[in-house]
Design brief:
By secondary structure, the chain is α+β, with helices and mostly antiparallel strands. The chain folds into three domains: about 55 residues, ATP-grasp fold, A domain (Dna Ligase, domain 1, 2-Layer Sandwich); about 40 residues, no CATH class; about 120 residues, 2-Layer Sandwich (D-amino Acid Aminotransferase, Chain A, domain 1). The protein has six helices and eleven strands.
């Protein structure tokens, strides 16, 4: 899946972006900070919702720095420039927020959440609301998955690349069977599908076997940590 990471909106001028795209902030959860954008103007509108607000005092200080300060030199800084200093002050007081632009996969009415705890793989299907492409945060999910193997295989492949005891991945599958990785977290993720699901999958001699859950979440987490430390 194609994506672009930006530390500043000014970096967009160097890219020939193909819309529509999915806009994501780095701090959102449950689909907050996620939107479908069709132009650079849409991106700028989304950014204004999340960028820090500048106070009138800060605006006045910026104007003073740019227009009222006299020329001065600082020993050791031969290229010191008052105007550049004012611009840098503006960036300091109102820094651009980093964001991600991700390829949009049309036609999806649900995605998959897979959580890995050691050798245990929990999976659920998350549905979108009518008129919305976002499944995260909709709270419409079930565990009725006819063929979970493609998503479990993808999650297993990703988990092997991480040096972490746990991993949460959000996956999508289009009509052609292509699997897309939308997001991943190795910490600070929801455990709803673990505590509400009936069980989990384990990989046994190349086959995924479903096992009913009898342990508590804390017991399974402790086992995953133990496996990681002893590996």
């Amino acid at each position: 899946m194609d994506y672009h990471f930006f530390s500043s909106k000014r970096e967009m001028q160097h890219y020939d972006l193909k819309f529509p795209l999915v806009f994501k902030t780095l701090t959102g959860s449950n689909s907050t900070g996620v939107a479908l954008v069709n132009s650079k103007d849409d991106i700028l509108k989304e950014l204004t919702k999340h960028e820090p607000r500048v106070s009138w005092g800060q605006k006045l200080d910026y104007w003073r720095r740019k227009n009222l300060r006299k020329h001065k030199s600082i020993p050791g800084y031969p290229n010191y420039d008052l105007y550049k200093d004012a611009l840098q002050y503006q960036d300091y007081m109102a820094p651009d927020i980093p964001f991600i632009l991700q390829e949009y996969v049309p036609g999806l009415s649900f995605d998959y959440r897979v959580i890995v705890l050691g050798d245990k793989y929990f999976i659920s299907k998350r549905h979108t609301k009518a008129g919305d492409f976002r499944a995260s945060g909709a709270k419409l999910f079930d565990f009725n998955i006819e063929n979970p193997r493609p998503e479990l295989d993808m999650a297993h492949s990703l988990y092997k690349r991480f040096k972490a005891p746990c991993l949460s991945v959000d996956l999508g599958e289009d009509a052609s069977g292509n699997i897309y990785l939308f997001e991943y977290q190795a910490q600070h993720f929801g455990i709803n599908i673990i505590v509400r699901g009936k069980g989990y999958y384990v990989l046994d001699n190349g086959e995924w076997r479903f096992r009913e859950k009898h342990e508590s979440f804390e017991e399974m987490l402790a086992a995953a940590l133990g496996q990681f430390l002893n590996a």
